[in-house]
Amino acid sequence: MFLPIVGAVALAIDAAFRGNRRSPSPQQSTITTSLRTQINEMREEIENKRRDLEKYEKRARRKNMKSFDDVAKYEKRRQKALSKLAHKTKTIKRQGNNIGIFGLTSTGKSTIVNSLLGKNVAETGVGETTKEITSYHGTGYTLWDTPGRNDELTYSNEKYISFIKGLTRRLILIQYTIKENLNLIRLFDDLELGYDIIANKFDEIDEDEQSKFQCQIQREIESFRLKLKKNVFFISAKYPRMFPSWLEMVDYLTNECVDYDNSFTTDTDSDTSSSSDSNSDSSSGLNSDTDDDS
């Protein structure tokens, strides 16, 4: 019932915009553009939820699930089976410092890639712009941008499991709550893989509400009993210098004295990704040299 109503509201607002033929003021144009962007994001989210619901309904029909108890039992069996397979999956071994960036659509994964590199190399915009795991090479490290759909079927993919096991760092981007990526976090905990929580778009929270939001995230971490969470950074990838956590995060990611999860010396071909080389002399990102050694 909710989704059709939201869709109708979005269409009504859009139609109202098109029906207004008078020349808008600059302020009205800004507001109109902002609202249209929100409408597009809303449509994208609705479409994603619709697809997820269809997938779930198909699985439910195949399993002949008729109650919430049936659903709970199925999910428990599925999680156990995934855990066993994940533990048996071989790791894709890579050389150097490999940093994976995870998060739902519109949490700013591509923006953080661009800010860390000091260069616009990853496409950003409304909706999901990253369709496959993509690598971006910096000086002494590689950033891996991942698709933003929180689709559990993706986690069941053997190549995906191999990929996440071979990473040095795992950055989980959230915007509102830990719940956005709780299933992925559970998988990391089960596989004994460390990860960091990155609360992005901190600038969009009212200044007098920021402390409350930080406390909320900390309570969720304790409530969900996250075992292998290493750090929590509250940042704005769009405005890196706005909060001190950005430089703290950069220092952490480039600190060679830290014991990485994996120290690999063997390169393997990655058939699960595409690559894009980049370099920058930006002092606010990971690159400090103008030469790319990758």
What does this structure look like?
The chain has 294 residues and is an alpha/beta fold. A hairpin with a 3-residue loop joins strand 2 (133-137) and strand 3. The chain has helices at residues 2-19, 26-63, 68-88, 109-117, 152-155, 158-165, 182-190, 210-223, 245-254, and strands at 97-102, 133-137, 141-145, 169-174, 195-199, 229-234, 273-277. The radius of gyration is 21 Å and the shape is globular. It has a seven-stranded mixed β-sheet with strand order 6-5-4-1-3-2-7, with helices on both faces.
Q: What brief labels describe this structure?
A:
single chain; 294 residues; alpha/beta; Rossmann fold; seven-stranded mixed sheet; globular
Give a short synopsis of this structure.
By secondary structure, this protein is an alpha/beta fold. 45% of the residues lie in helices and 13% in strands. The C terminus is likely disordered.
CATH class of the largest domain: Alpha Beta
Fill in the CATH topology of the largest domain: Rossmann fold
Rg on CA atoms, Å: 21 Å
How many structural domains can be distinguished in the coordinates?
A: 2
CATH arch. level architecture of the largest domain: 3-Layer(aba) Sandwich
Write the layout of secondary structure elements.
Layout: H1 2-19, H2 26-63, H3 68-88, E1 97-102, H4 109-117, E2 133-137, E3 141-145, H5 152-155, H6 158-165, E4 169-174, H7 182-190, E5 195-199, H8 210-223, E6 229-234, H9 245-254, E7 273-277
Parallel strand pairs: 1-3, 1-4, 2-7, 4-5, 5-6
Antiparallel strand pairs: 2-3
Helix pairs in contact: 1-2
